[in-house]
Each structure stands twice: as C-alpha cells, then as structure tokens.
Amino acid sequence: MATHKDLLEDIRRDFADTASWTGRAAPSPQLMAALAAVDRARFVPPSEIGYAYLNTPLPIGHRQTISQPYIVAIMTDLLDLAPEDTVLEIGTGSGYQAAVLARLARHVYSIEVIPDLAARAAETLQRLGYPNVEVKSGDGRAGWPEKAPFDAVIVTAAAAEIPAALVEQLKPGGRMVIPVGAPDGDQRLTVIEKSASGETRSRVVLPVAFVPLVKG
Questions:
Q1: Contacts with 148 (C-beta within 8 Å, 6 or more apart), sequence order
Q2: Which domains does the chain have, with CATH numbers?
Q3: What residues have CB less than 8 Å from 205, skipping those under 6 apart?
Q4: Residues pairing with 181 in the sheet
Q5: Contact 56, 179 (CB under 8 A)
Q6: pTM of the model
Q7: Residue 149 — very low, low, confident or very high, per pLDDT cuts 50/70/90?
Q8: CA 117 to CA 120: how far, in whole Å?
C-alpha cells in the first residue's frame, strides 16, 4: 500500500517530468514541507482512505473530486506565495488544497459552491487546527469582494473563461492560477499575472482535466 512518503516522491517525479511545460523542475522546500505536514488521508471520505496516498484524484461526493496531489502541488508552487500573503481559493472541495495553502500564506479565504462540502471542509479544517482558513458557500465566480484584494487567487475548477471579478480582486503584483477550458474539451492550466499598473498577462502551463466551475 502506498505511503505518504511514496506520494511525496511521486510528486517530485512529476515535477521533473513536466518541467519542460511548467518551468518548475522541482517543488520548493517550503512546498514540500507543507505537503509533508498535511495528511491527505484526513481529507478523503472513509471509503477512499486506502487510496489517499496515490497520486490520483479521488471522489468526495456530489460529483466532485479531491485533486491529484501533483496538481495541488504545481498549482500551489506557481502562486509563489510569501508568508504574509492572503489567498483566495475558489472550490474548497474537501479542504486539502486550503490546508496546503494555509501552511504557506498568512490567510486563506475559500469559497465552495456546494453547501454540504463547504460545511464538511470547514469542520475538517477547524478540527485539524487551521485557524487561518475561512470557508463560505457561494458562487466562486464572484470572488469575495469584502476580503479583497488578494495576493493570489487559485481556482480548482475549470472556467470556460476567466471570471472578471477574480481578476479585479487580484492585487497589483499578484497572480492567479486557473484551469481554463470547456468541461469536456481541452483545458489548460493558466497563470495570470497582474502588473503594478493593473495590466494582466497570461501564459498556458499544462494540459489538465478539472470538474467545471459551476454557478452558485
């Protein structure tokens, strides 16, 4: 049976294998420390615990998934987080991605469109001791204007187009990582950077497959 250590090694290998696309040959030491500290088994349903350390997505109910650990890792790495940063996450899911982010940033605000998943993730994160994560249920495409602006935005579901509200809520100098594409078509992990003057530029990083970003 795969172990947490095996999973971390799988993530390292995937970074090396995809370096020509991502420009990231290895995860940062800070990211690896966060991944080592967050036990994925605590964020999957009981029926999936035996698969928690496999480098693959897993079902969490409501036709949603907990993302492949490598994808969690590369999306986090591409944000280039600093300890004082505030992050907006769209798509809380099980709370696993939020837990990883919380070990690298000052505060994480996470929005989940499915109320049951939002409540479960909030309870899990509170029980495991993540006071710097705040979860609410709502339409993630609208962002969280009351808490904006954000140093970084991460979207864990595929958007047909980049939501304008999320770009607006990104600080100058910040970056967003988001999968863009049709639910059953080509999807590309995209990094959007906002300059000090407010202009944005984007680059495609990697082909991916995500559940769609749905309206609340």
A1: 88, 168, 169
A2: 4-208 (3.40.50.150)
A3: 21, 22, 74, 78, 188, 189, 190, 191
A4: 187
A5: no
A6: 0.96
A7: very high
A8: 5
d(CA 150, CA 171): 5
Cα pseudo-dihedral 203, 92, 140, 162, rounded to 10: 10
pLDDT in tens, 118-144: 999 999 999 999 999 999 999 999 999
Active site residues: 67
Query: 133-137 and 150-155: which strand pairing?
Result: unpaired
Q: How far apart, in Å, are the Cα atoms of 53 and each of 31, 94, 103, 203?
A: 17, 15, 19, 31
Q: In the chain, which ranges are E strands?
A: 58-61, 64-66, 86-90, 107-112, 133-137, 150-155, 170-181, 187-194, 200-208
Asked if residue 213 has pLDDT above 90, the reply is no
* Strand, helix or coil for residue 169: coil
Residues 6 or more apart whose CB falls under 8 angstroms from that of 168 comprise: 143, 148
81-124 per-position pLDDT tens digit: 999 999 999 999 999 999 999 999 999 999 999 999 999 999 99
Contact (CB, 8 A) for 9 and 65: no
What is the pLDDT, as a whole number, of residue 216? 63
Quick one: tokens of 206? 């990697």
Phi, psi dihedral angles at 138 (to 5 degrees): 170, -175
